[in-house]
Design brief:
It is a single chain. By secondary structure, the protein is mainly beta. The chain folds into 4 domains: about 1-35, no CATH class; about 40-115, no CATH class; about 120-165, no CATH class; about 170-199, no CATH class. It contains 1 helix and 18 strands. It has one helix at about 105-110; strands spanning about 1-5, 10, 20-25, 25-30, 40-45, 50-55, 60-70, 75-85, 90-95, 115, 120-125, 130-135, 140-145, 150-155, 160-165, 170-175, 185, 195. The strands form 3 sheets. Strands 5-6-7-8-9-10-11-12-13-14-15 form an 11-stranded antiparallel β-sheet, covered by helices on one side. A 4-stranded antiparallel β-sheet has the order 1-2-3-4, with no helix packed on it. The longest helix has 7 residues, at about 105-110.
Length: about 200
């Protein structure tokens, strides 16, 4: 049953014992949505005067708020956002607020971090280096650290590790049934190399 009154449109499903306000002058109640589809051609969720979230065919986008010293208010920054879409979840911190990726590779090239169907990546603030945990690498690398285009560390799915540069720090232990307590090969802090067996 429906009832149209000055306070809005009311509905009931118990013969009029209880009524719910479905539509009123200031909007539609989300409490009455029980089934069906919402066409999100473009929906904005506002925080005071500014859209905090946008939900459209490009995904669900949450914008960063920045304090404007001149106005003394928080204002939305359309060039910084996180988005969830068909490719995954990623953060963008650039100059093009209209950034709409066309592929996962487009996200990896332009976003600062992401969790996509290919894995996880995170870049340094200046974009010069990154850490990638990849499920779709042609070389089979599972974890990769880069500096620009150079790979400085890679760990593949077979457990093999590749390093570029120096390894520094404490004791390094490799191999054996118990590689932590009884390794076949290790380098002590003082530089001594201990090896069991022969080369």
């Amino acid at each position: 049953m429906l009832r149209l009154m000055s306070g809005g449109l009311f509905i009931t499903n118990d013969g009029g014992l209880t009524w719910k306000n479905a539509v009123r002058g200031d909007g539609i109640s989300a409490d009455i949505l029980t089934a069906g589809r919402i066409n999100v051609g473009e929906i904005y969720l506002y925080n005071e005067d500014f859209p905090s979230f946008r939900w459209d065919s490009d995904g669900l986008t949450a914008y960063k708020f920045s304090f404007n010293e001149y106005s003394g208010k928080n204002e939305v920054n359309f060039n910084k956002f996180v988005r969830h879409d068909q490719y995954g979840f990623y953060g963008y911190n650039g100059t093009n607020g209209d950034f709409i990726p066309t592929s996962i590779e487009d996200i990896q090239d332009n976003a600062t971090f992401g969790l996509t169907w290919n894995g996880f990546f995170m870049k340094a603030k200046d974009g010069s280096s990154s850490v990638i945990i990849n499920s779709n690498d042609t070389k089979g690398d599972v974890i990769k650290c880069t500096n620009g285009t150079d790979t400085t560390f890679a760990l593949n799915k077979n457990g093999s590790a590749t390093f570029k540069g120096n390894i520094t720090g404490g004791t390094i232990k490799i191999g054996g049934i118990d590689p932590i307590n009884n390794p076949n090969f290790y380098v002590k802090d003082n530089g001594d190399v201990i090896m069991k067996g022969s080369i």
